[in-house]
């Protein structure tokens, strides 16, 4: 097995890595697209293609759903829970063994700094480990119907689950959906984003090595329109987990409605970080920086709206700007503090927000420009950007930018901060920094968000249910609640 250093050196000199999967993963084997077509994935740090993969369509989806259905009915749903758990546990071990390769591939494909990709791979291993242990604890209930009856319930697997995966957290989103689905006894067809197809394919190979029977996990690659749309509309799909944009999520929900297929939607966010004057200033600075500049701000739960108490504001924002200007940008594999954004399209979208803001007279405190990898002069980079003292109705405050752009709003006190925080069409997460724990928990009770982070943004892991309210979607992934979303309750009542 090659070391991380060897893989990085190879990827940087060759611009690619040998042995990347090129086909779909269907029925336990690699297969080319039925149409024979393929497409390229780009390395955002060089703005250049680095590998090709299968460009799937409805024909491939048909094969994958058929394979999943057979595997579900013939093997997986009747595989004892403890045996399922052992396979998932083995998968967690294999993911850990392969951390370097998975992380380097993830960095090349998505542009995220290698250290962040390694964190994502560790998170993926944790997802399999966590749900491995949950397989044989999926217990039903009994009902007190009296001595002449027997009443009980079972958590049945829902059937064949589709996973539509975005490009910002390819392996971790894949793992947090696939692991609980398999733990529940479901078979899966996953469709990774066309910008980042490779780690989902590698994950499928690892699961096969871990002992997963053929057909239980299938991966179809290709575009959303050509491969994603036929998957979510397929009548053989029993559940859809979708992570991505609001617009596409609405379309997925409509397509699923035609078959009355259940959906979990993890959509956008515009998450507030409330920083009160009594906070631990350094922890808050670190937290706000990570909340918006990790993964170049391309995180559904990014803390993109800083709401800071007036007495703290001036110095705090000055420090943030200084830190933002000092961030070292670069290719994902050169250990930067911030990497490129994922695509040309995304870069244009981010620049468009700032250009429109400037055109209406908004002042940009720092950043606000495209740039490049200082070493190569290549790549899709946008400078860490902060826009101070924004009006609550400004487009920058209202819309998800999905890039390294932080808006700042000034609050008079905690109540005002709460009102500003909840004034959004989104409600995914919220952060609070204060030394006053009672105040923090009172705010947490009133914040409209699926999860609230107190004094550490992004705190928590696979144990903690995750999902949104309002236009951020509904349903919860992660935690035991995430497992139950792949189950359906069957109640049995018998006269004895
Ligand atoms: P998207 O929502 O279109 O893509 C996400 C996934 O959905 C990809 O796998 C894509 O192939 C698939 N998809 C696209 N159309 C589909 C369809 N009709 N049926 C089934 N699957 C389909 O998002 P996109 O275009 O990549 O990014 C646009 C914006 O969405 C971003 O600027 C960002 O604001 C937001 N976004 C939010 C994410 C999140 O984590 N909540 C993740 C990715 C994007
Ligand atoms: Mg790519």
Descriptive terms for the model:
496 residues; alpha/beta; Aldehyde Dehydrogenase, Chain A, domain 1; Aldehyde Dehydrogenase, Chain A, domain 2; 2 domains; 6-stranded mixed sheet; 16 helices; 41% helix; 21% strand; globular; binds 1,4-dihydronicotinamide adenine dinucleotide; binds magnesium ion
Written account of the structure:
With 496 residues, the chain is of the alpha/beta class. It has 2 domains: 4-267 and 473-492, Aldehyde Dehydrogenase, Chain A, domain 1 (3-Layer(aba) Sandwich); 272-461, Aldehyde Dehydrogenase, Chain A, domain 2 (3-Layer(aba) Sandwich). Helices cover 41% and strands 21% of the residues. It has 16 helices and 23 strands. It has a 6-stranded mixed beta sheet with strand order 9-8-7-10-11-22, with helices on both faces. A 6-stranded parallel beta sheet has the order 16-17-13-12-19-20, sandwiched between helices. Strands 5-6-23 form a 3-stranded antiparallel beta sheet, with no helix packed on it. Helix 3 (81-97) packs across helix 7 and helix 10 (281-293) packs across helix 11. The N and C termini lie far apart (60 Å). The mean pLDDT is 98. 1,4-dihydronicotinamide adenine dinucleotide binds at residues 164-168, 191, 193-194, 223-225, 228-229, 232, 243-245, 248, 251-252, 266-268, 300, 346, 349, 400, 402.
